[in-house]
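User: These chains co-purify. Model them together.
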Amino acid sequence: MAPGEFLALLGGSGSGKSTLLRLIAGFEAPDQGRILLDGADLSPLPPHRRPVGMMFQGYALFPHLSVFDNVAYGLRRDGVARAEIARRVDEALAMVGLEETARRKPHQLSGGQRQRVALVRALVRRPRLLLLDEPLAALDAGLRERTGLELRAIQRATGAGFVMVTHDQAEALALADRVAVLEQGRLAQLATPMALYERPASRFVARFLGAANVLEGRASGSVIAGPGCALRPAEAVPDGDAAVALRPERIRLVAAAPAENGVAATVTDIAYRGDTWLVLAEAGGTTLRVTLPAGAAPPAQGAQVALAWDAASLVVLRG
Amino acid sequence: MRGAVALPFLWLLALVAAPLLILAVIAASTAADGIPPFALPTGWQGLADNLAVLADDPLYAAALLRALVVAGVTGALCLLLGYPMALAIARAAPARRPVLLLLVLLPFWIGFLLRISAWIGLLRDEGWINGVLLALGLIAAPLPMLYSDGALLVGMVHSYLPFAVLPLFAALTRLDPTLEEAAGALGARPAVAFWTVTLPLSLPGALAGFLLVFIPAAGEFVIPELLGPPEAQLVGRVLWTEFFQNRDWPLAAALALALLVLLVPSILLFQRLEARA
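Assistant: Joint model of the two components:
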């Protein structure tokens, strides 16, 4: 991880993303391996000696302390002088627009205000690295997007490295510089959001992000004999068993299916999703997810349709 | 449905309100020969007379004060001993907690008088502790331990400790364990995290535990009688003397009412703490 980078750890429940965060913070001990920060191994240090801040999922604000004392807590532990504490806490609260609430107790704040207190409490000690455990999960959907953008602006302003755990792929893609996808405790892929979405490395990543179609078949001479269709990716495919990912939004309805990169299918289900229609179509024993713009008239259930896609939309999967 | 709601009220009426009323009536009576040994009140004069006796003789005020001091010290010692116990149980693996709580309550399985008698056997001049110390040659003559304030407090703490542990345990298990982790992530050593986060947040539970010991301990009669110094006149013993030896039921009832009035603020405070928890 680069200094000042915003990294997202993305995974489903049980993927090990929270455990990884607790390992970095020092609340769990690794069975083996090392945790390096600026070349120094953190593993032998107890949590309070690590130059790492943490924002907890439920915020873990101290209910008996005022907002000011919550934010000042870490500075007091560091032995910072009184006047300096007051200056830095005021400055931190001003950064998130909470100057007026300094004397209130956490239970007198709204959810969004509590979230910002937890953030500046972790940041005010200027840690080299800030760990965030589902920082937006407890917020209303309407507040989540704006708060996420504020989070990224604060990250850029402070220059601290952020490691954010999330199960929400849209959040990870929108905020992070790089995203690490975790699958059952293993790193499935680490890449920039665009690379991750456009070029998933494995079936798991392709399905987890954007629910891509994964088409299996046997490759021979750069053509894959897929389910009821011939797939010809733009890139070369080694002969043998092969799998490609195809995003639902890259599939078009056409008048007649082409010989390659197209298929005749039967619509099994349709669902309106506001901005798009989701169409499930069966071809060669495989169900394809297709999303169409909401403005277009969707095919009727049970209708025969012809589908087509560009060669460049097929991503050959390695795992 | 209506009957089910009425049941607790009947219970309170029969076992709390009615005895209190009888106590108040006796306190307003005048002592007389006969069975029962009092004449029913004709006005408020009887109560005024009894209260005047209580106020005039410093014996009663001293007995009330001494009972409150002993109860307060007992409560404080129970907290000091009970807090580490409650903390250890709250931090134990959830599967082991019921066993540990059972161990805290285990003394209740043995008869109360039997346990107090055991202390007599341990503490008296020819008792086990003096016997061992004499045999080891550490002392030349038996230490006078029984019938002292120390023996009194040992018996009180032994009997009332579980009442302090249980509310403390309840308060400590309610605390969010991530709060101490958050303190650690903010640079607090474990001891500092405990002192600045866990301890202040558990104070309502500690106060509840203290009051749960203090309130019944203030009226305790048996333990001071069996283990305490003979000259120590606690309110419980004075009550017993007035009631059974002097057969002055009205005065004893007035003294009991005075103790109840002194404990009312503690009881109200305890109820407020419980309502908030």
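Chain A touches chain B through 23 residues (CB under 8 Å).
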